[in-house]
Write a structure and sequence with these properties.
- The complex is a heterodimer of chains A (117) and B (116).
- Chain A has 117 residues and is mainly beta.
- Chain A contains no helices and twelve strands.
- Chain A starts with a strand and ends with a strand.
- With 116 residues, chain B is an all-beta fold.
- Chain B has strands at residues 4-7, 10-13, 19-25, 31-38, 42-51, 54-57, 65-66, 76-78, 87-94, 106-107, 111-115.
- In chain B, the strands form two sheets. In chain B, strands 2, 4, 5, 6, 9, 10 and 11 form a seven-stranded mixed sheet that branches.
- The chains are: A mainly beta (117), B mainly beta (116).
Chain lengths: 117, 116
């Protein structure tokens, strides 16, 4: 079983600044993936970034990067040069690979990110 | 265009009236799943399917049924809907269950269901 905890229900940042969203997880599996999904007001779920747990290097995708601390079971998302279009609900999620990943994604409760112009 | 489609996008119904939410993907994905999203709870998996004719329960399967007769379709069936099934529902698919990089899940646009 896996659990994902996002302790920040809401975060606010000034446009062009940097913001970090926190996520901690718990899993008994040795092999797993971690994800950040973005959900804008349209409600569409959009994959932002993924991290394979066996990789030590932190994943990056343009302005988005993660700080993956495996021992601490922490997986934070850093958004650099925040833009108005980044305003959304952000979900952290995990996927265990026991059983071939069949159990799908386990999501946190989300962090609502507000971008102030 | 590669996509996951859901229909209907919005539905208001009454308690006990059977309904089906369709999900279709055009990417030849083997793995499909259904999630429900409720305020303050994030998304929770209802059912999943590793391939045709192979389905299994997720975390919150009570009150739902699914079928996977064809690879592209994975309908969600509510035999007797109740108000506690009012939620936002997402269908998702991936090429495979857990083999990178083919296991990235692509989500449909969501179905907003209200049961009165």
């Amino acid at each position: 079983a896996q659990t994902v905890t996002q302790s920040q229900p809401e975060m606010s940042v000034q446009e062009a600044e940097t913001v970090t969203l926190s996520c901690t997880y718990d899993t008994s599996e040795s092999d797993y993936y971690l994800f950040w999904y973005k959900q804008p007001p349209s409600r569409q779920m959009i994959l932002v970034i993924r991290q394979e747990a066996y990789k030590q290097q932190n994943a990056t995708e343009n302005r988005f990067s993660v700080n993956f601390q495996k021992a601490a079971k922490s997986f934070s998302l850093k958004i650099s040069d925040s833009q108005l279009g980044d305003a959304a609900m952000y979900f952290c999620a995990s996927m265990g690979l026991a059983g071939g990943g069949a159990d799908g994604l386990t999501f946190g409760k989300g962090t609502h990110l507000i971008i102030q112009p | 265009e590669a996509q996951v489609t859901q229909n209907p996008r919005y539905l208001i119904t009454v308690t006990g009236k059977k309904l089906t939410v369709t999900c279709s993907q055009n990417m030849n994905h083997e793995y499909m799943s259904w999630y429900r999203q409720d305020p303050g709870l994030g998304l929770r998996q209802i059912y999943y399917s590793m391939n045709v004719e192979v389905t299994d329960k997720g975390d919150v399967p009570e009150g739902y049924k699914v079928s996977r007769k064809e690879k592209r379709n994975f309908p969600l069936i509510l035999e007797s809907p109740s108000p506690n099934q009012t939620s936002l529902y997402f269908c998702a698919s991936s090429l495979s269950g857990g083999t990178p990089p083919t296991d990235t899940q692509y989500f449909g646009p969501g179905t907003r269901l209200t049961v009165l």
